[in-house]
Specification:
mainly alpha, about 70% helix, 2 domains, Helix Hairpins, about 250 residues, single chain
Length: about 250
Amino acid sequence: MSSFSKWLGAGLGFTLGGPIGAAIGFAIGSFVDEFNVEDLTKEKRSYQRRVESKRGSINTQSGDFEMSLLVLASIVIKSDGKIDQRELDYVRSQFLSMYGKQRANNAFKLFKGIVKKDISARQVCIQIREHMSHASRLQLIHFLFGIAKADDFVTQKEVDEIKKIAGYLYINQYDYESIKAMFYDASDNAYKILEITKSVSNDEVKTAYRKMVKKYHPDKLRDLGEEHLKGANEKFQSIQNAYEKIKNERGM
């Protein structure tokens, strides 16, 4: 359990407390079937000591983003009343690509415990928005749409849940619709991604593009660590592709 304990505490700041910390604690308790009672007791005591030592901390670390992803992903996956294996596989594959095998295995082990707990999306999002930048919160929404789309069919309940989470995270309607459009094929999606309508002028298209480049530039997420830049680059590429599509359509 030592490697798991080291991973769990190394990169955590604000998520050691509050509703996210409670979900983590619950997940650790669910390991009782996998580990012996002595190891479980030591892990829970170690976790509690870290919570007490960092109580009141508002520092955001790489692990905080990771834990926030796990908790919010568990909420979205359960929103349609079932847990689809393809969605679980997507979570695992994303963590493998971001964190490598050992860290991903630890994260998914924790996730399987978290997904068993009923969690208040509102309370979790309040905790996140108090400690996480707007750019990081946008990235969370991007990841959640990726999970919902993993089974090739996004249910209305999943969309409603992500929209509710976005609202709790103080993500406005334009940003939400922009990210959502990145996961759908529709004639006006390029415009939605740039947060404009087809009626705007070419100069307005260019202005919107520059604004979105600034908003979604991967450098805004560098404080979360290199492991989280893959998703940021995907989002940024969606902006580039949308702009190129509009330019080609208009002959700009």
